[in-house]
Amino acid sequence: MTKNDCIFCRIAKGEIPSATIYEDEKFRVILDLNPATKGHALILPKDHWDCLYDIPEETAAGAMKLAKKLAATLRDRLHSDGLNLVQNNGSTAGQTVSHFHLHIIPRYEGDGQKIGWVPGSSSPQELDEIKKMLTD
Ligand code: 5GP
Ligand code: ZN
Fold it and tell me: Using the 8-state DSSP alphabet, how is residue 85 labeled?
């Protein structure tokens, strides 16, 4: 499944050159053009899916397996101290390219990056209500 107008489809299929650090039949992993840190990479399935809501479970599992493998490579070769996995779905959540991708962002002591959220607060009642909405 390819979309001609999708930049990540074209990169994943090799129609547009990229700094590829891993490739197999189902995935290509490229370095991000605007990296948060040295080695910031994107795991791209070669098939087009907009986001996590759409991908088959095996694609999700495959992406996570690759992240696990690359985490060690980034640590060992770039001497990173930690790692963030980031995966945005929908423009509200910050997705700018509508082709599923998993960010793998190596972290370095003192790199100055901020990746995260503003912590909120919730009463036990609120947590209970939400739990019921999700499980009843
Ligand atoms: P999103 O915000 O959708 O989660 O992330 C999209 C990411 O893709 C951004 O970090 C952006 O820098 C990266 N990106 C966008 N276009 C290109 C491109 O043409 N090549 C590469 N290597 N990265 C891209
Ligand atoms: Zn695509």
Answer: E
- Residue 7, ligand 1, Cβ within 6 A: yes
With H, G, I as helix, E, B as strand and everything else as coil, classify residue 110. coil
- Structural tokens at position 50: 């907009």
The pTM of the full predicted model, rounded to 2 decimals, is 0.96
Collect all residues with Cβ–Cβ distance below 8 Å to 130 and sequence separation of at least 6: 122
Q: Indicate which atom in ligand 1 lies nearest the CA of residue 97.
A: 3
Task: Judge contact between 103 and 32, C-beta under 8 A.
Answer: yes
79 is a catalytic site residue: no
Of residues 40, 48, 99, 101, which has the active-site annotation? 101
pLDDT tens per residue, range 92-101: 999 999 999 9
